[in-house]
Design goal:
Elements (H helix, E strand, L loop, with lengths): L2 E6 L5 H15 L3 E5 L12 H11 L2 E6 L3 E5 L2 E5 L2 H14 L4 E6 L14 E3 L4 H13 L11 H20 L6 E5 L6 H12 L2 E3 L6 E3 L5 E3 L7 H9 L8 H24 L7 E5 L3
Parallel strand pairs: 1-2, 1-3, 3-6, 6-7, 8-11, 8-12
Antiparallel strand pairs: 4-5, 9-10, 10-11
Helix pairs in contact: 1-4, 2-3, 5-8, 7-8
Length: 287
C-alpha cells in the first residue's frame, strides 16, 4: 500500500505543484501517492475546509507546500511580498502534525516569511535552481521510506500490545530456530473469516498447546493474523464521526493508513528485539 503525500499551493503556484507531483511520481511512484489540493476527493464536499484540513493532516503521511510571492504585506512601514494566508496556515498545520522530517515548505526567494519560521530549514528556490530544490525534498522523503511516524494513534497502541503480549511471548518460548510469518490483512472487517480461509488454503492447524496459539501449515510454515486489528473499525468510527451507512471512502483511507502504521510499528519492534529479529517476518496477506 502506498503512502499518501499532500501538495498544497495557491492557484498561482499550481504549475510548480504539478512539477512536484510529476517528479515525485518519477522518483517514488512505487511507494508514494501524491495528491494536489485541487484534485477530487482531497477536500470533501459539504464539509468545511478547516475540518477537511484537520482530517488530511492526520491521514496524509507527507506534506509539501509551495510558497509563491502572491500577496503584498505591509509591516512596520515596509511592504514585502508574501504567500497566501491559506498556504501558510496549511503548512503550519501539517508541520505541527507530521513534524519537520515529513512536512516541507518550498519557498520562492522573493517571498517573505513570518519570523516564526526562523531556524527551520526551508527549500528556497529561484528560476534556475527549482528542479534541484525539488529533488532535495524528494531525497529527504526517501530517507524515511523504511521508517514510520511513531505517535499515539490507535494502530501504534495495537501494534505494541500485539508485539508485547503475543509475538515476543511466543519468541521467548521457542527453544530452537524458528520463522514466524505475521500476515497483515488488507481488510479488517472480516479478519476471522480471512483466518479460516487461509487455514483451509494452507491446510493449517493450531501449533502447540501453550498460549499464544499460532498456526502451522502442512508445509511447516508458522503464521498468524493479528485479530486485534478488527478493533480499528470501532475506533475509527469515533474519530471520523460519520453518519453514513455503507462504504465510506474517507474511513477506508484512514483504515489503510492505520494498517500501514501497524505493520511499520511492528517491524520496528521486531527489529529492536534480539529474539524476534530475523525470525519474525511481517507480510501482507494474499487471499
Amino acid at each position: 500500500m502506498k503512502r499518501k503525500l499532500f501538495i498544497g499551493s495557491s492557484l498561482e503556484g499550481g504549475s510548480i505543484a504539478e512539477e512536484l507531483k510529476t517528479k515525485i511520481l518519477e522518483e517514488c511512484g512505487d511507494w508514494i501517492e501524491p495528491k494536489l489540493w485541487s484534485e477530487d476527493k482531497v477536500f470533501t464536499l459539504n464539509e468545511s475546509t478547516f475540518h477537511s484540513l484537520i482530517q488530511s493532516s492526520r491521514e496524509y503521511e507527507y506534506g509539501i507546500f509551495v510558497a509563491t510571492a502572491d500577496d503584498l504585506r505591509k509591516k512596520r512601514w515596509h511592504i514585502t511580498k508574501t504567500m497566501r494566508d491559506n498556504v501558510l496556515f496549511e503548512a503550519g498545520m501539517f508541520l505541527g502534525s507530521l513534524g519537520l522530517t515529513r512536512a516541507f515548505l518550498l519557498v520562492d526567494k522573493k517571498c517573505a516569511l513570518p519570523s516564526d519560521y526562523a531556524g527551520i530549514t526551508l527549500s528556497i528556490y529561484n528560476k534556475t535552481n527549482l528542479e534541484n530544490k525539488i529533488l532535495e525534498i524528494i531525497d529527504s522523503i526517501k530517507e524515511t521510506q523504511n521508517s514510520y511516524k511513531f505517535s499515539i494513534i490507535p494502530s501504534v497502541a495495537l501494534a505494541v500490545g500485539y508485539f508485547e503480549n503475543f509475538i515476543k511471548l511466543f519468541a521467548e518460548q521457542q527453544k530452537s530456530e524458528f520463522v514466524l510469518n505475521v500476515l497483515i490483512p488488507n481488510s479488517i472487517s472480516d479478519i476471522k473469516n480471512q483466518i479460516d480461509i487461509h487455514k483451509s488454503k494452507t491446510k493449517s492447524d493450531n501449533y502447540g498447546s501453550a498460549r499464544p496459539i499460532i498456526y502451522k501449515s502442512y508445509t511447516g510454515e508458522l503464521w498468524d493474523i493479528p485479530t486485534n486489528l478488527s478493533t480499528l473499525n470501532s475506533v475509527i468510527d469515533i474519530v471520523t464521526n460519520t453518519v453514513e451507512i455503507g462504504y465510506n471512502s474517507k474511513k477506508e483511507e484512514r483504515i489503510q493508513y492505520e494498517i500501514r502504521n501497524f505493520a511499520g510499528t511492528l517491524e520496528f519492534l521486531i527489529f529492536k528485539n534480539r529474539k524476534c529479529k530475523n525470525n519474525v517476518i511481517v507480510k501482507y496477506l494474499d487471499i
